[in-house]
Write a structure and sequence with these properties.
The structure holds 2 protein chains of 2 kinds. By secondary structure, chain A is an all-alpha fold. Helices cover 75% and strands 0% of the residues of chain A. The longest helix of chain A has 29 residues. Chain B is mostly helical. Chain B is 83% helix and 0% strand. In chain B, helix 3 runs antiparallel to helix 4. Chain B starts with a helix and ends with a helix. The chains are: A mainly alpha, B mainly alpha. The interface between A and B is medium-sized, with 36 and 28 residues.
């Protein structure tokens, strides 16, 4: 993906509020962002809604992109923040429902709906914490460097490496990867 | 030099890394109007900002002017009575004070309306 072209498009958006240039940026990166959010949420429809919110937020905050890292790294940071905020909101929503006597089955319903589509990757992701999942997806699915993940998650590079190591260990011990690698 | 070493270290992948990469690999998602939907939302947002703002200011001004003028008229004698204690030239600046208050309130009404419309 041409980094220079991304920067040119970003400059057009920031200087002239060029919606066509922003549309081009979306077309280039929507697949990465949607895949990232789908892996985080496990719910395709919710992930696409979040992706829309992410791009709307990216439009508002594009002037804060310094251009020092890759644009997709910055975009995934916005996506991750959007995901965390939505998670907090739904947690509050569930708490309110519980307070008024409704048992919140939002999460289980979401998973039950897609139970027949559970893949090996979903099983891997299930043993990871939310933070580990996000970082592993950024690293292995989106191909971000440790530095880019550090920028995206506002964590030191050393912590990113530890989280990846820990995630790998969890997957290794949970699924006995070494013995059943390609089976 | 240091960043080169870090990059090399990152590239030194073990078999589990390669396995994870293949597991995490996913086929690209087709756009299918996704980008167009967002661009439309943004254009609508821009349109609201550009067109509705002056309209909201105008409407806010029309709605707020009469009660504000009455309020300022009511306060005017009070301000006159204390003007000597505060600023000697207050009486000269009162007309502009009236304008400032009206303007500020109109702006608040306009911004409030804009926020409501955007939401």
């Amino acid at each position: 993906m041409a980094k220079g072209e991304d920067h040119e498009l970003v400059a057009r958006v920031v200087s002239a509020q060029d919606t066509q240039a922003f549309g081009e940026l979306i077309r280039r990166h929507q697949s990465h962002v949607r895949n990232f959010l789908r892996k985080l949420t496990g719910d395709f429809s919710a992930a696409d809604d979040l992706a829309q919110e992410c791009f709307m937020r990216a439009w508002d905050k594009l002037h804060t992109y310094s251009g020092s890292g890759s644009f997709i790294g910055w975009l995934l940071k916005v996506a991750y923040t959007t995901f965390l905020q939505s998670k907090r909101k739904s947690k509050r929503y569930a708490e309110i429902l519980e307070q008024v006597g409704h048992v919140s089955d939002l999460e289980s319903r979401t998973h039950a709906l897609q139970a027949d589509e559970v893949t090996d990757l979903d099983k891997f992701l299930a043993v990871l914490s939310e933070e580990e999942r996000a970082i592993m997806v950024m690293s292995y699915a989106c191909g971000l460097s440790h530095r880019e993940i550090s920028d995206a998650t506002s964590m030191p590079v050393g912590s990113v490496k530890s989280v990846i190591f820990r995630g790998k260990e969890k997957i290794r011990t949970s699924f006995d990867i070494k013995d059943h690698q390609h089976g | 030099m240091t960043s080169k070493i870090i990059n090399m270290a990152e590239r030194m992948k073990d078999e589990q890394d390669r396995l994870l990469e293949s597991m995490f690999e996913s086929s690209p998602i087709a756009d299918d109007g996704f980008s167009e939907t967002i661009v439309r939302r943004i254009r609508r947002k821009l349109w609201i900002r550009r067109v509705i703002m002056p309209t909201a200011v105008l409407l806010g001004g029309l709605v707020a002017y009469q009660p504000l003028a009455a309020l300022v008229k009511g306060l005017y004698p009070l301000l006159l009575s204390v003007q000597g204690d505060l600023v000697p030239s207050l009486s000269e600046s009162l007309p502009s004070l009236q304008l400032i208050i009206t303007g500020a309130l109109v702006l608040v009404v306009a911004l409030f309306s804009l926020n409501m419309i955007e939401d």
